[in-house]
């Protein structure tokens, strides 16, 4: 592989006009596609294999035209102090609002509070339920404006009015902090390279790669039903890995120049060595993201595949466009150690002499030497520290966000609180029980039996009479719990209803199913929990095999996987501490604490594993390269840090800055993932890879690179260390190689 990539790097350097034209054309094509594509429609949230989804599908089949997936809104009214909603003037205001809402072109129905028993017992709060023909993402802006205008007119009449439901859901925004993250990355690159030109290359290529990826997602959003969160996450991950991959290749290019090689040869060697690490690091990220498909949640699968596509683009750009841009930059990208006047160096690029004697060892060399001398102490300190950070993860509570998790500044959250005040906390999460009596000899008796069974359960406030369909073979029953939607008590009630339904089915032949947003959230959490172990086995297993090929070792990949588990558990502990316990919540902009999003652990495992392997590959391949070239194990560790620590540190800081930039998002899932990934990169890069990894390698010595002879013969030789390039370098530049690559 190193030889092929070496040829590719030289070809891209020489044919830079052609390479740049291809990428600019792809960016233009993707941009035109995004601009001309129809707006994204409904991002369906189906959960195949769950009871809630089965009931939802049954409703669409047995209640045609009911718009089961249509948007809903609850317009909540509260009377002024000392008045009641049943007063004549307030009643007239509500009736006028209901009439205005019913005139909407996309409105399926509006329930009058006074005829639908939607007034609280004390008479101070009432609500009108609005049902729409289309989903919240498909509602026209005029329909949303009409809803807000009707609420405002009722406010002007003296009532307190708030609107809940998904009819007013907005496209999430990332905020200005995303730009701050990119700015921090730019500063780190300038400090690392000491050159604006060299620092600009990774930023430029990352932005082009993300532009192509996100534009492609936007162009396909309508056809593939991709949600807005998909493009935000693809941008987050694409920016981080795009900058990092380019950073590694540019750094290696400058190191090759410092050894006296010509620029084209240096570009080829940089792509052949660092580029090999980029390919395998990118493969681990892609495996982790695509592996999310095993969860069998379509939305999560689409997010993973879209982000993986953006990572693949970042790898291809790093391998081709970076050497092409290096060709354009020419002498403006200086050899390593020759940083020009930007950071206080001399005009000719040589360090200013400050004292006689040998050059001072860099920080990476000094740190690695310290770890090699005291490996056991560093290992214990790192493991204990990560273990302490992981303690909050033992209290992890999972759930999906509802209006109760919204900031108190939103009308959805205020409507949620008003409904809880007037009707009880469980009113915000009603359970819909669907009774399928098609196989029953007495459907009506079956409906009644289910109703009686539910009324006898603990934790039930109200049960509506069965509402059968036209065929009389299916009925719906609404159940109001006495606990809030995200509570353990509500989850227990859902399971109790399902157990009671099993008894009814045995007696009458009618099947009882529980659905609704609350039941769907419970089923999603359980499905994700059940899928976590198989997902870990698949992803870690595949990456473990891949790393055996890269490092030609058993213990190094095993150590990499165990280190990843430490960092991801510590990161989950930090997420629980901030978003569930409320530690530093004000600093992070978390207005409301609550359960951690159900998708967070498995998504975080996938992404963090891929990114953790990035640093493992980049850092340890340098150590193996030194070991293969004859250095002793301890010295190889120091050499790996000498050449790689500064770059890996810069890459980690850049990735943390990019991820942290998304903490300013208005979407709670994006905010949580941004924080989780940023803190996970910190733990993995600075504790696991910079401390635990060298400590373990120092303790293992030569055993770290042990591989059974039979396995060594069976594995393909991918030559990540670039051993084959030594012969190629001695032969010198051969223009015929470029033509051979083109013909291939």
Describe the structure.
This protein has 744 residues and is α+β, with helices and mostly antiparallel strands. It has 23 helices and 11 strands. It has helices at 2-14, 16-36, 51-62, 88-102, 141-156, 177-193, 196-224, 228-258, 263-290, 298-329, 363-373, 375-390, 411-423, 443-455, 488-508, 517-551, 555-580, 600-628, 633-660, 668-700, 709-714, 725-731, 735-743, and strands at residues 72-78, 107-111, 125-132, 160-165, 398-399, 431-436, 460-463, 467-468, 474-481, 511-515, 596-597. The strands form 3 sheets. Strands 6, 7, 8, 9 and 10 form a 5-stranded antiparallel sheet that branches. The protein has a 4-stranded antiparallel sheet with strand order 2-3-1-4, sandwiched between helices. A hairpin with a 5-residue loop joins strand 8 and strand 9. The chain is elongated and about 90 Å long.
Summarize the topology.
Blueprint: H1 2-14, H2 16-36, H3 51-62, E1 72-78, H4 88-102, E2 107-111, E3 125-132, H5 141-156, E4 160-165, H6 177-193, H7 196-224, H8 228-258, H9 263-290, H10 298-329, H11 363-373, H12 375-390, E5 398-399, H13 411-423, E6 431-436, H14 443-455, E7 460-463, E8 467-468, E9 474-481, H15 488-508, E10 511-515, H16 517-551, H17 555-580, E11 596-597, H18 600-628, H19 633-660, H20 668-700, H21 709-714, H22 725-731, H23 735-743
Parallel strand pairs: 5-11
Antiparallel strand pairs: 1-3, 1-4, 2-3, 6-9, 6-10, 7-9, 8-9
